[in-house]
């Protein structure tokens, strides 16, 4: 089955970890992930400036490694990310901000990527939310 | 044929960016001519309240964006009748009130559902 996975919560939320476990299980079960789309506070799950305490899981890092290892299409919504200060080098330059907290394997793009993923997938699975 | 998407918007317009971000999904889908429905539930029905004064809470007025739904080809706009009644909203603007049973049927009709 082809899954599109949307995440709406930050790395410290249980739902971010659940989404990661689901994504890992989907691939392990022979399924395909057409795209990960991080929206709303989900953009924080892609931040590379999170420092997790040594005895706690670093979910943002685990997401990064998972997406890199499996060469997945990991998209972070650009409007949601800008609003929350999650910037790649291009956006940090554009808006003259000193911090860069997003880089590969993540790509910043628009909501069209969510709709495109929904059309391509058999199932959209959503995690977290307000 | 395109897959249909129902967006269920459950947050009040002044409770953070969630209501706006739910609406942005709907408008983006409309821009791509996709079959999109929008259902307001729980505190989301406050987005339909008439005579809102967003400036009083230093917010941008979301109701203007709701007016744009028709321009984006989004005609399937619904509201939970129970949520409306519980919040004293008897005359919402621009949304068709639905009973709980009708909402269950509505969700069943769509291929995908996003709840925010």
UniProtKB/TrEMBL annotation, chain A:
<dbReference type="InterPro" id="IPR017463">
    <property type="entry name" value="Sulphur_relay_TusD/DsrE"/>
</dbReference>
<keyword id="KW-0963">Cytoplasm</keyword>
<dbReference type="GO" id="GO:1990228">
    <property type="term" value="C:sulfurtransferase complex"/>
</dbReference>
<dbReference type="InterPro" id="IPR027396">
    <property type="entry name" value="DsrEFH-like"/>
</dbReference>
<keyword id="KW-0808">Transferase</keyword>
<comment type="similarity">
    <text>Belongs to the DsrE/TusD family.</text>
</comment>
<dbReference type="GO" id="GO:0002143">
    <property type="term" value="P:tRNA wobble position uridine thiolation"/>
</dbReference>
<dbReference type="Pfam" id="PF02635">
    <property type="entry name" value="DsrE"/>
</dbReference>
<dbReference type="GO" id="GO:0097163">
    <property type="term" value="F:sulfur carrier activity"/>
</dbReference>
<dbReference type="InterPro" id="IPR003787">
    <property type="entry name" value="Sulphur_relay_DsrE/F-like"/>
</dbReference>
<dbReference type="GO" id="GO:0016783">
    <property type="term" value="F:sulfurtransferase activity"/>
</dbReference>
<protein>
    <submittedName>
        <fullName>Sulfurtransferase complex subunit TusD</fullName>
        <ecNumber>2.8.1.-</ecNumber>
    </submittedName>
</protein>
TrEMBL record, chain B:
<keyword id="KW-0808">Transferase</keyword>
<dbReference type="Pfam" id="PF02635">
    <property type="entry name" value="DsrE"/>
</dbReference>
<dbReference type="InterPro" id="IPR003787">
    <property type="entry name" value="Sulphur_relay_DsrE/F-like"/>
</dbReference>
<dbReference type="InterPro" id="IPR027396">
    <property type="entry name" value="DsrEFH-like"/>
</dbReference>
<comment type="similarity">
    <text>Belongs to the DsrF/TusC family.</text>
</comment>
<protein>
    <submittedName>
        <fullName>Sulfurtransferase complex subunit TusC</fullName>
        <ecNumber>2.8.1.-</ecNumber>
    </submittedName>
</protein>
<dbReference type="GO" id="GO:0016740">
    <property type="term" value="F:transferase activity"/>
</dbReference>
<dbReference type="InterPro" id="IPR017462">
    <property type="entry name" value="Sulphur_relay_TusC/DsrF"/>
</dbReference>
């Amino acid at each position: 089955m082809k899954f599109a996975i949307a995440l709406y919560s930050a790395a410290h939320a249980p739902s971010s970890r659940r989404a990661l476990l689901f994504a890992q299980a989907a691939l392990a079960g022979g399924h395909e992930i057409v795209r990960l789309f991080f929206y709303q506070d989900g953009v924080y799950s892609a931040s590379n400036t999170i420092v997790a305490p040594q005895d706690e899981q670093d979910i943002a890092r685990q997401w990064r490694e998972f997406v890199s290892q499996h060469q997945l299409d990991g998209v972070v919504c650009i409007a949601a990310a800008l609003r929350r200060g999650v910037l790649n080098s291009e956006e940090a330059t554009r808006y003259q901000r000193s911090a860069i907290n997003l880089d590969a394997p993540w790509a910043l793009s628009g909501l069209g990527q969510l709709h495109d993923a929904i059309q391509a997938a058999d199932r959209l699975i959503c995690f977290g939310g307000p | 044929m395109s897959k249909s998407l129902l967006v269920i918007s459950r947050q009040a317009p002044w409770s953070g960016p969630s209501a706006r971000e739910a609406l942005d999904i709907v408008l983006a889908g409309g821009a791509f001519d996709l079959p999109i429905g929008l259902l307001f539930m729980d505190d989301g029905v406050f987005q339909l309240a008439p005579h809102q004064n967003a400036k009083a809470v230093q917010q941008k007025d979301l109701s203007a964006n709701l007016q744009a739904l028709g321009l984006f080809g989004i005609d399937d706009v619904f509201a939970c009748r129970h949520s409306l009644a519980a919040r004293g909203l008897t005359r919402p603007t621009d949304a068709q009130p639905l009973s709980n049973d009708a909402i269950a049927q509505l969700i069943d009709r769509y291929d995908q559902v996003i709840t925010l």
